[in-house]
Amino acid sequence: MLKVLVEGYGFRPESYRRGFEIQRTVMDELWRFAEGGEPIFARVFMAVAAHFLGMHFENTGMKDDRTFHFTNFSLPATPELSILREAIWTRLFSLYEEEGLQSSVLDTIRQYCVDSVRPPNKEVVRGDALHVRPFLESVLNPSSYSDCTLMHEYLDFLETHGGDAHNRLRGRFRNETFALAEVLMLTWGDRMASDESLDAFEEHKRNRLESYTDAYSADDYEVFFERCCEIRDALADGHSDFLLRQEVVNALLVLAGRDTALYGDVLGRYLRLGDPLQLDGRALVMKLLDVQGYKKVIRLFQDPEYPAKKRWLFWAYEGIKPDDLDEAVLRQLCELYGAAELSELPHGFDYLLEYCFLDERVVAKVVGIVVEKVNLDLRYAYILEMLFNPFTAVVKRLPELFADDLDVLKLAYFLVDGMRDHHDQKGEVFNLLLTLDPEFISEYLAWMHEHAERLRMSNSGDHRDYSFIWLRPDYQWMMDRVLADAIRSEQNHVALLDLTLRAFFLHGIKDGESKGEARERQDDFLLKVIDERSGNVEVMIGLFRVIAHFQPERRIEFVRRFLLRNKDVEVFRRLSLEPHTWSWSGSMVPVLHRRLSFFESLKPLMNSVELLPHKQLVEQDIRELRVKIEREKKIDFIGE
Asked: Which residue has the higher pLDDT, 488 or 181?
């Protein structure tokens, strides 16, 4: 309905010629229903009003059968437009009398202030101000931070586009929370006109924050937190929310540098409020550990009950100095892992290395606890992801950390491997696991086959670069196991061979082809399989589904070897000699010519009498390609 009203009856570049009669009629009819007490029509009226009160518009349509055109335009400031906009504003403001619609009416004005990316018509803005400014002044409450921000947004908009500064209104709508927000929410972009460097801006902002909070008492900080919550509730985007929380942390760190005793008291009060701002308290905890010691800090975080209690405790355990660690602390940490929910668990294991002198299996034990959680809720697998991040310290010590818990490490790897953003894209951990236990290759294939359907359906299959396997001294043994395990599976052989062999030959490799020694070893392996299993139809079909993705000149040798070992034309007919999908830019003719050239290169391989049926199949493909080439040439010519 809205789409029809806005696009079908909205403004056109020529609407002014008829005095905006259509748009006026639409708004009159909508208002007739809205005024009659129908809530749904009141909201429809506001939605259409928000669009009609815009400054710039766009129309789309077909210029002719083959050309789509866009028209951007602004409305001229005519008397008829002023009358229409006055009627819309007046009716919109009357809806404010309904308590359930008040926030929507104010949101419409807020949208009006920020909607346009191009300078609006100043005459239209001044005309609107005759209605909007008195309304805002009459309904907004200066004690409300949200109302203050709306008034300032509107006055900024008005001043930018030709209106007065209205310092009286700015002063009236500037309460204590608004003044605090001016300190906390200042961004570099707000001061870029001063040519200030980012470092200079950060120093300026810190000094301003320090000066603003210099005389704060513990009670003042409680009020500070309340005002920050009011600011947060009025924010419209996640970036601003992040900025607010970061500045609250900075304010507390400033306090820690000024008065450590007051800092501990204030942080305790904040936690007893329930961590209402959901701060990233890592830096706060580290500072508190420096000035109070871990026993007082742990006691502080354990006493009050608040939603993020376990998260704050984890930060404390991450920051405890090695000299303060003992078996009791380690036991408490493991118990915390067992009790924690997903949002409370730390995203990393490096800090656990500090605990290894107490128990060399501590990382494996913690990972085992998380693995048990994954079995109940797959989302916990994201916690395990950092175990395999190549930039962490723990990944470099996996062999020693899991020397007695290799099965736990394998299971963690499988759980993370099903995630779309797995860090082990180059296979470094996979290669390590093969070195620790060569049988891991079979365990991995069993897992991949078990989840094959889910991987295909989600398009989140295996994209790892397996070049490392082809460079291992035991690559032949490894790939024999890969092939044997795929064939031995009770599921569909061809589908599994396709999934498995694509992974080990094609995934993650630039341009779809291995290079150097890896490619030579791949070719030797494939030729060996053709020599030994050319009579196994399903194996050959699966094998050639992979070979089809190689470059044409590389494919030829595999076709030649197959024809040497198996001359059954019915099997040959089922082999994939080229990819099933193609991509190109511009004309398709060059792609068709390359395909034609490949099939032409196969004909000399089939000069014997017994391969005559094979040659006829290839020649049929050649004829079809030539027909397609001529057809595409005609399409290109007509298109020009």
From this structure: 181
